Amino acid sequence: MSNESLLQTLLDHDVFAEEEQMVSGIARNAIDNGYNSLSGPQKRVLEPFMSQTCDGVEDPGGYHNDCRRVMTDDELQTAYENQGYYDALLCSDCINEYESYEAARGRLDAE
Ligand SMILES: [Zn+2]
To answer: How far is residue 28 from each of residues 33, 43, 108, measured CA to CA in Å?
Structure first.
């Protein structure tokens, strides 16, 4: 995984949609010319977007696990790719937790 492909994923998921156009412009520049072609100040503009805290999940009782995991690189890219499905930005642990609740719900529905 590269910074460029992470940035492409962020663009694909409209992460920069509410930012100034300059931000997505820098991201596109990084994708086209390589992240390392950016200046230090340009990298600092993108840095906050390249790590995100997990949204966490609620158990069936409504108790939020308060996950504070900071995701970067591959994990963040995967989280964005799964965001539409889970309707949240989740780390791999929370995805596993969510799936176990779903599996439990599925068993209940089947009974
Ligand atoms: Zn998490």
So the answer is: 8, 12, 47
